[in-house]
Amino acid sequence: MRWLEGKTGWALLALVALLFPLFAQNNYLISVATQTFIMAIAALGLNLITGYTGQFNLAHGAFMAVGAYTVGILTVDHQVPFWIAFLLAGCVTALLGYFVGLLSLRLKGHYFSIFTLCVSYIMFLLIEKWESLTHGPVGIMGIPAPTGIGPLQFGTPLSQYYLVLAFLVLGIWIMARIVRSLLGRSFMAVRNSDELAEALGIDLMRTKTLSFVLSVVYAGFAGALYAGQVRFLGPDLASEVVTFDLVMFVLVGGVGTLLGPLVGTVLVTYLTQSLQFLQDYRMVVFGPLLIALIIFMPDGLVGTWLKRRARRADAQASAAKDAAGATATPIAPAKEGRSHA
């Protein structure tokens, strides 16, 4: 399985994603895959603040709605070109995330999570009630698809699939650079212990706020892509259900792993689509499966695999060390018996 690790494994995943439309039976499956990749981008952001920094943000889905509504409002009501609105969606989400982070990150543990859940509900109410800005319960209709870039056009499900895939690859690459850098090590130090991080000279508030802003920027751009792909927005996008779905994706794949959010999003989406024939009863099957996974594999699929691989490597290293020690130990010569004359 070592050939699946590192760049080879990522290249194989990219190849599978590139070839998927060739085997998809219809545009519906391609659209489902596109939305799956969009949710994976948002899940990557949630994993940064929760998995790498240890702050359980329950307003993540609401920030995704902020990015989506920014694109919808600017393009439909003010005729702003899509890509300008797309960039502004990231800026608006980052600015809002900065101020929410300054307030919420003064709290720790469950208090932080409860506060962000309240923030999420407030944002949902604003989207639902502020009709002059967000169109209220009616939602925003007629959002334009992403405009073409040179010869590239994005008006078809296939072209949007590859557009979102390109953003997913870019998001994973940037996230890998972040978590493997000194900044990423600072995030993990905060996750392990605030006291330890402070002893190492890390500014706790600045580090947590930066992680929070970076994570919600991922959610904002995911929401912007969602708006351009679905073309319709409603207040439900800001509900806590979206956040809980993202949390489920991260938990199933593996918290604090780079591959986990992607694996969790794809696997859960595939299972829910496969169980659609059960209609309202599909959660009767899916629910126990999810509970069993969390009980027996609390680190998620990728996290469990990484831990088992690490234990196997340690066992092999210990065995090799013992074997080398036994080989290097000289054998004491046998004592000669006394000779009798």
TrEMBL record:
Biased composition (Low complexity): 321-334
Name the UniProt record assigns to this protein: Branched-chain amino acid ABC transporter permease
Membrane-spanning segments: 34-51, 58-76, 82-103, 110-127, 161-179, 209-227, 247-271, 283-306
Keyword Transmembrane: yes
Annotated source species: Variovorax guangxiensis
Pfam families: BPD_transp_2 (PF02653)
Entry-linked CDD domains: TM_PBP1_LivM_like
Region (Disordered): 321-341
GO molecular function: branched-chain amino acid transmembrane transporter activity
Entry GO CC: plasma membrane
